[in-house]
Amino acid sequence: xxxxxxxxxxxxxxxxxxxxxxxxxxxxxxxxxxxxxxxxxxxxxxxxxxxxxxxxxxxxxxxxxxxxxxxxxxxxxxxxxxxxxxxxxxxxxxxxxxxxxxxxxxxxxxxxxxxxxxxxxxxxxxxxxxxxxxxxxxxxxxxxxxxxxxxxxxxxxxxxxxxxxxxxxxxxxxxxxxxxxxxxxxxxxxxxxxxxxxxxxxxxxxxxxxxxxxxxxxxxxxxxxxxxxxxxxxxxxxxxxxxxxxxxxxxxxxxxxxxxxxxxxxxxxxxxxxxxxxxxxxxxxxxxxxxxxxxxxxxxxxxxxxxxxxxxxxxxxxxxxxxxxxxxxxxxxxxxxxxxxxxxxxxxxxxxxxxxxxxxxxxxxxxxxxxxxxxxxxxxx
Length: 381
Prior knowledge:
By secondary structure, the chain is mainly α.
C-alpha cells in the first residue's frame, strides 16, 4: 500500500526518471488490484495547483500595475513558464540535431559496401549509428513527457485562477457569465495546451534541422539542393496563413459554443415555464440551429485541416523528387548514396517543417485565441 505523503518522482535518481522505472511499482499494484486514492503518489510542490496559481497571479498583478488595458494572459504565461519551455526546447532541439547527424554517418557507412572504407571503420560507424538511435529513443520520450507535464501545469494553474475568480464574483458578474459557459471554457479551451504540447519544440528544432541538413545536402548535390530548399521555404508562409485562419475559426467556434450553452442553460432554468406554455418546439429549434451553426464551423475547420494535411503529403514527394530530377538534368551521375541521403534528409526535414511546425503554429494560434477568451470572459469580469 502506497501512502500519499511524499512524491515518488522527487526521491528517485535521474536514470529512473528517464526510463520511467519509478512508475513500475504503481503499475504492478494496478495490475494486481484496482487502485485506490491512497495508492497514488503525492504531486510535487511545483505541480500543486496552489503554487502554480500563485506564480501566475504574481505576474498577472505585475502586468496589471504596468497597464490595465494592455495586460495579456498569454504574455503572463510566457513570463511565468517561458524559461522552462526554453530549456526544454533547447534540449529537444539538440536531440533532433544529433538524430539528423545520423544521416551523415549513414552516408559514410554505405561506403563500406563499395570498399571505400576499411572493415574497422565500417563497424565503428555502425556502432555510432546504433548509439545515436538508442540515445534518441531514450531521451526524446522523456523530454516530451516533461513538455507535456509543463503544459499540464499551465492548465492546472489557469484552472486554479478561474476557481479563485469564481469564488469572488459578484452577483452582477455571475449573471454575465453562466456556469455552463465556464465549464465550456474549462473543457474545450484549456485542452489546447495538452493537445499541442509535443509540437512546440519544433519552433526551434525545425529551422535548425533545416539549416543543418541543407548544408549536408549541398555537399552531396551541390546547386541541385536549392530546389529542395525553395520548396521547403515556400511551405512556411502557406502554413502561417493556414494557422491564422484556423485560429480565427477557433474563435468563431468558441463564440458559437458559448451561445449554444447559454441557450441550454436558459432552457434548464426556465423548464417549468417552457412546459407550462408549450414552448418546447420553439426552444428545440433555437438549440438545434445554434448547434448546427457550431457544427458548420467545426466542419470548415476540419476540412481546412484535412486539405492542409493532404497538401503536406504531396509536398513530401515533391521535395524528394524535384531535387533528384534537377540533379540529373544538370548532368550529374545519380549514385545510390546521393539518392539515399536526399530521400532521408528531405523526409526528415518535411516531418519537422512540414508537419510539426505547422501543427505548432495552429496550436499557438488556437492557444492565443483561447487565452483571450479566458481573459475576457472570466478573469477580467
